[in-house]
Predict the 3D structure of the following.
Amino acid sequence: MVSKVLVANRGEIACRILRACREAGLASVAIYAANDAKSFFVELADEAIALEGDSIAETYLNQRQILEVAELTGADALHPGFGFLSERADFARAVSQAGIQWIGPSPSAIERMGDKMTARITMRDAGVPVIPGEEIETEDEDEALIAIEQASTRVGYPLLLKASSGGGGKGMRAVERPEDLLEAARSARREALAAFGDGRVYLERLLTGSKHVEIQILADRHGRTIHLGERECSVQRRHQKVFEEAPCATMTEEIRSSMGKAAVAAAMAVNYEGAGTVEFLLAPSGEFFFLEMNTRIQVEHPVTELVTGVDIVREQLRIAAGEPMSCGELHIRGHAIEVRLYAEDATQNFLPAIGPLTVFQPPEGPGIRLDTGVRQGDEVTPNYDPMLAKLIVWAPSRDEALQRMRRALDEFVVLGTTTNLRFLRELCDVPDVVDGSTDTTMIDRLWPEGWTPTLPIEFEDGALMAAAVAESAGLHRKASVSATPNEHSGPVSPFMTLNRRYP
Amino acid sequence: MVSKVLVANRGEIACRILRACREAGLASVAIYAANDAKSFFVELADEAIALEGDSIAETYLNQRQILEVAELTGADALHPGFGFLSERADFARAVSQAGIQWIGPSPSAIERMGDKMTARITMRDAGVPVIPGEEIETEDEDEALIAIEQASTRVGYPLLLKASSGGGGKGMRAVERPEDLLEAARSARREALAAFGDGRVYLERLLTGSKHVEIQILADRHGRTIHLGERECSVQRRHQKVFEEAPCATMTEEIRSSMGKAAVAAAMAVNYEGAGTVEFLLAPSGEFFFLEMNTRIQVEHPVTELVTGVDIVREQLRIAAGEPMSCGELHIRGHAIEVRLYAEDATQNFLPAIGPLTVFQPPEGPGIRLDTGVRQGDEVTPNYDPMLAKLIVWAPSRDEALQRMRRALDEFVVLGTTTNLRFLRELCDVPDVVDGSTDTTMIDRLWPEGWTPTLPIEFEDGALMAAAVAESAGLHRKASVSATPNEHSGPVSPFMTLNRRYP
Amino acid sequence: MQHQFRTPEGPVEVTVAKQGDVWHLGEHRATVEPDGRLRIQLASGGSALATVAKVDDTWWIHFEGHTFCLERIEPGASQSGEEGGLTAPMPGKVLDVLVQVGQIVEAGQTLMILEAMKMEHRILASTSGHITGIHFTAGEQVQQGSVLLEMTEDED
Amino acid sequence: MQHQFRTPEGPVEVTVAKQGDVWHLGEHRATVEPDGRLRIQLASGGSALATVAKVDDTWWIHFEGHTFCLERIEPGASQSGEEGGLTAPMPGKVLDVLVQVGQIVEAGQTLMILEAMKMEHRILASTSGHITGIHFTAGEQVQQGSVLLEMTEDED
């Protein structure tokens, strides 16, 4: 039984989970750092408890303090979201030992999949194809560098260095030439050590021209382990996904079936429970290779929800409560696309940006979903990930979904902070995106010198004129009209003679 | 071929259609009365043309002027939306004669279904069951009253008087007792004459305890006439729908199949083209009776879109362009509920309200769709229908959809104009709604003395305190924080030395 | 500070006090958030945000899923409009006047028919009595709150 | 009225004139909508709404699907910051300093490594030259726009 869920996360995914708890009739507890006191997710929780400390390590990564909050509030389940402590087996273990239901797989499943090298070995043993490469187990920097150098000659160039504890592109480096290997390895190890406390990196051959395709998994305690079809997430910049879709445009029933089987086998190999994702590289030949398994909910889960009709977070809650999952046969309908709105400057190599969200007006209408943790008036700070929102569209066909995404992005207005909105909009017109032939190197290939917007000169004139008129008319000194209406009457309330006095 | 669509409507349905045109790559033209110059739908169109005149008759019902705009702008198709001219056969004919594609069925189909008495006779001839009742064809008031009185003894009480040209509850009266018949008939005739220019009314037996169930139809020029399953719209106040869902909670595959067949037969009997709805009363026995056919898109079409995955407006555009419809086999997934947010006072017999939308904050998150034509800062005027928005949710099951609707309504904030928001929220907790045993008289049965909110006294205390603190703190004199940020820096733009001078 | 508001149950006097950033009303507490909303902590322990907006003299409050409409009574303002007048509930057009001055009417009797938002609305007598004044005829436009008719209540 | 704005291509001077409610800039026209947006009618015939917001001295403009960020140059303000300084592109922490004062560096060489938003960012030399100043050491926090290092450009 689960009755009160502590959400050990922040931002849009905390909002997503807290709303699911509300809908499921579960009480909810949010935790927040001081700089999140006014964030939207804090409002959505039944209870919200401030965490002491300034850094992420002292707050959202502080296992002891989070467990204290769980005890204090009487939470009997904990949802870790993604990032932060979501793939920390030691935390999952501590939560369980405190008598609190961990909403996710067992600590041992997290461990075996969380260490990317162990996962590669586990998958190889289970008969799932992995990318050609070599594990480097040593933790010692000098020994590791020597081993990396030796392994590189066997793996061949171009190659990828990946942190064994990594994720989200952190501690990952593509190396084109032998002479760049050592600096890249040092840098990857340093970033990995800072981010995960584990500097180990391993080598994989860099498979160019491949698609990043991943299978969503659900497993309950009643003997069912199923997959919900695939997502394609090839479009990445800085090794981070930016444009995701379901289904994959080039998927065949045959590949879906064998990839789905491999993913279910991967999950069953570690006695998986809950929601998880098995990531593959899909080569143009139709061959696919295991990349890694994410033992948690993923950022891009909404595209799967829209095409399968399964509420994945709600199923996570059900499974954690010991109930059987409620979804039936896999039935994929239509097409869904997600783009990630980042506070970043796409013209400056996607450098993160900060600032106020002076205007934040998302698009509306049929087939549009917005998952966000921010509101107009909020502040984008350098403290956390720069993702502001996920804009997701569904339509009966892929063409219609792209048309809808273009329309939605055209309606979206964000002022006060630089975002990748225009980059996302122009992505929708790229021939590779239009015809579905996206691969993981597309952005680097299309814009080797960096991206700049295609901007008719007249639009720039219009913007300059707008600024000049706005300044001349003093628009910045006027309150918005809607904030201070003063010429209207509310309805007239009839009233009677009873008097009350307060207090 | 269709390339440019004139949308002869306003408000949320105009927004819905204009966005569909944008997505389909069609140019669009909006028409608007002076009091709509700042309405949202005007912004969404590629071109917007002001109509001359003040009254609805001079603007949105002015066939001549609308045809002139179509010619002026070179529109080659016209979408009438619902209400206004959407069911005027003479207009459909004039549009076609002007060489413009009417997005809807043929004038003769509109005529035969639009006159409710003719429709009853057509359906009876086609073997579709109709409600026991009598048509009164005479237009003369005195003759009609005599005929109504005579027919009433054969039909029996309670009975319904319905305008032959009616719709939306206008010109409709329920009569419980013979002594109320004449005043009700005069009033219904007067309202019908004012609204439709046709005072004829007919009699039907009032079938209490029945559900209002309707079937969505699509027919193209390539020989396909299909149905998209049913919607249940039993929950009505003042004969207007307020809570709609798909599928109907008590529907069986057998009844859906026979009702669907009857609806397709009805459409084929008039050589129907495009989207339409065949309305039935479904008795507790499982018997169903033809009510009427709406030869246009309906307010509640989104619930069908969400459960079938068909974009009905997009299919209308396709069918009008002579293409085959794109949807395949009927496959109903999950459950969708729509509630209609009206500017009205639910505690005063749903009397329409007006005022500014000082705050208008719709809910967000997965599974929520909002179709609206208003924005925060807009004004609700007495000129048009008081419907502000349609809030639609989808979830895998009916229970989950209700849970989601409760959550969404809890998040919805509207200030400045009285709405039925709380009424809608409490509807979601009514046992009849929860167990799906809604019928058309539910609201009158549950609240014979009118509805009042269930309000814990402490919440009223909280509100009084909020008002007192807001007044004391002078919150009405402060601009909103988000409107005038002043303590943040935008990103620093590097700049070079090139100088330009404008103009 | 002390304010009077009209509620459906009649005028209510509310006195709130401020200590530091916290407002007090008995055991209830409130603080003003940076975005202009109010955090209300009720004596029972519940806590929720109130969204507020003022339109003319009326505070609109959204709190715990309910919307309240509280007209502030200016200190010293006279209270008028309570007796006799039958006012237009909304702007519209008079369709028909069914009574005459001097006529005796019963509670619930239809006195006038208005048309607004394409619907008919009936103005009913709330008590039995005599019609003492009729201010509009069929076809005339009326504003919200316009006094349409006047009547005196019959004494029992 | 005349204003100067910084654009990616350099400062631009814009002169707009008002006739009645309509603003003019050459053949372009603009009007202010009641909600604070601007209706811009371009000389080419296109017309669209611009959403505007000012943050400090910078006007943010959304127009035709593009977002512009135009810093207004106060009349008479001096133009500084153009030479020599290598500034922090965003707030963060210095992870490593890879050069020393006096060192000769080449264009593209990594001078400093910052960490912000959990990612590493490299500060590169934009030209070849000499390092003349280093203002932060590893472990220190920096604000956006802080001058991190100074260098002189080598003459060719």
